[in-house]
């Protein structure tokens, strides 16, 4: 599933919440890509009511592939490993565990009336 939302919005405006899809449309432990306000975002549903959003672009290769990464954890921290070179990123902060010079943009999410909203 690819979700397209708010193509015409200007990315230079202040952050705003964007409704993406119903939470039930995302499979558990699986990534999906969405186009939100002109930005490619990878969404990950890790629990019935827990969704993370990060940039779809892999910081190491600049390829738009993060939604196909491998979900995991480091201790209590939820992670995503890039499908290309396996760099491991914290889903909450975007920090890279395997290469501190890399950082993945991470976005706030919330559930409102059963729908996922992402702040960009």
Mind explaining what this structure looks like?
This protein has 120 residues and is mainly β. Helices cover 0% and strands 47% of the residues. The chain has strands at residues 2-5, 17-22, 30-36, 39-47, 50-55, 70-74, 77-81, 88-90, 106-107, 109-112, 115-119. The strands form 3 sheets. A 5-stranded mixed beta sheet has the order 1-3-4-5-9, with no helix packed on it. A hairpin with a 2-residue loop joins strand 6 (70-74) and strand 7 (77-81). It is globular and about 40 Å long.
What top-tier CATH class fits best? Mainly Beta
**Chain-averaged pLDDT:** 91
**Helical percentage:** under 10%
Unreliable residue runs = 2-11
- Discrete helix count: 0
Can you summarize the main beta sheet? 5 strands, mixed
SS class: mainly beta
What's the name of the CATH homologous superfamily?
Answer: Rieske [2Fe-2S] iron-sulphur domain
What oligomeric state is this? single chain
The name of the CATH architecture is 3-layer Sandwich
**How do the strands of the widest beta sheet line up side by side?**
1-3-4-5-9
What percent of residues are in strands?
over 45%
Estimate the global geometry from the Cα principal axes: globular
Q: Distance N terminus to C terminus?
A: 20 Å
